[in-house]
């Protein structure tokens, strides 16, 4: 039952959609690298194109478009839409005298932060694999 509840949530829908987007973008590069004959010069260009597409989802406009689309889809599927979360207050015995209740955490900001961190990791991985030091010697042999 717990798995069913997890799958039937806005959070699951959001992350599934985001990961699908990432996999589709990186799959284009992966398929090109798996071909028997490919041009090493074009691989670098394709890697830069993939990075640009991944970086695009971090922009505010793209994020808002995705967010609104997923909100509409969640309403159609009658899923509970993620609302802002209240900070969990520590028990009285653990609070200091200066304790002040923290403001609510905006759900949109949490999802945006996860997207930015994930895209940064993917982009860094692609960049390190396709740096000129790695591709340069191979490119000169095959050109």
What would the keywords be for this entry?
about 140 residues; mainly alpha; about 70% helix
In a nutshell, what does this entry contain?
This protein is mostly helical and 143 residues long. 69% of the residues lie in helices and 0% in strands.
Structural class: mainly alpha
Q: Count of DSSP E strands? A: 0
Fraction of residues in helices?
55-70%
Strand fraction equals: under 5%
Low-confidence blocks of residues: none
Overall residue-averaged pLDDT value = 79
What general form does the structure show? Answer: elongated
Number of domains: 1
- Distance between the ends: 58 Å
Q: What radius of gyration results from the CA coordinates?
A: 21 Å
Give the number of helices: 6
Sketch the major β-sheet: none
Polypeptide structure, described:
- This protein is mainly α and 143 residues long.
- The protein has one domain.
- It contains 6 helices and no strands.
- The protein is elongated and about 65 Å long.
- The N and C termini lie far apart (58 Å).
């Amino acid at each position: 039952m717990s798995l069913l509840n997890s799958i039937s949530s806005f959070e699951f829908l959001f992350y599934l959609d985001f990961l699908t987007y990432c996999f589709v973008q990186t799959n284009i590069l992966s398929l090109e690298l798996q071909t028997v004959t490919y041009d090493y010069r074009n691989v670098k260009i394709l890697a830069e194109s993939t990075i640009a597409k991944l970086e695009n989802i971090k922009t505010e406009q793209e994020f808002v478009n995705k967010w609104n689309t997923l909100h509409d889809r969640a309403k159609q599927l009658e899923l509970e839409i993620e609302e802002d979360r209240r900070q969990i207050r520590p028990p009285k015995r653990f609070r200091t005298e200066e304790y002040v209740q923290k403001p609510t955490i905006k759900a949109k900001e949490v999802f945006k932060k996860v997207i930015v961190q994930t895209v940064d990791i993917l982009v860094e991985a692609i960049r390190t694999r396709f740096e000129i030091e790695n591709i340069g010697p191979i490119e000169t042999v095959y050109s």
